[in-house]
Design goal:
Blueprint: H1 2-43, H2 53-138
Length: 139
Amino acid sequence: MLKKYLQTQQDNFDIMRSRHGQLQQKADFEQQRAQLLAQHIDAMESNQQMRCSLSLQNLSGLKHILQDMAQQQQQRSAQAEQEASRQQQACSKQAAYNLALQQILDNRLQQQLLQLQRREQKQQDELAMQMFQRQRAAL
């Protein structure tokens, strides 16, 4: 029964690891998007290249919008990283739990083997005692 439970927990752990991998990929993707957005903002034309005040206003407004987007993207990236980190912690806890279950199973098996050895030794001792008593009685 405990063996089935351990297998179920191991299956859960495998699902959790898979989910962690997905979350880590998402965090990496979000970080990459934030970097690309920052590069795009940095690559925009500088104020010195603009001749018209309307163009300067447009550029300034666009940069402001893009900087807001970059900030939002950084927040999304941080959230994705936190979620991946939480999943990693859950995986670690599940792995420790599975290890503890495995140790319990191993201990039970060891106890059963020890009991079996004791029974066999007791039977052998009884058999040897009977043979000794028969030999003594035959003399």
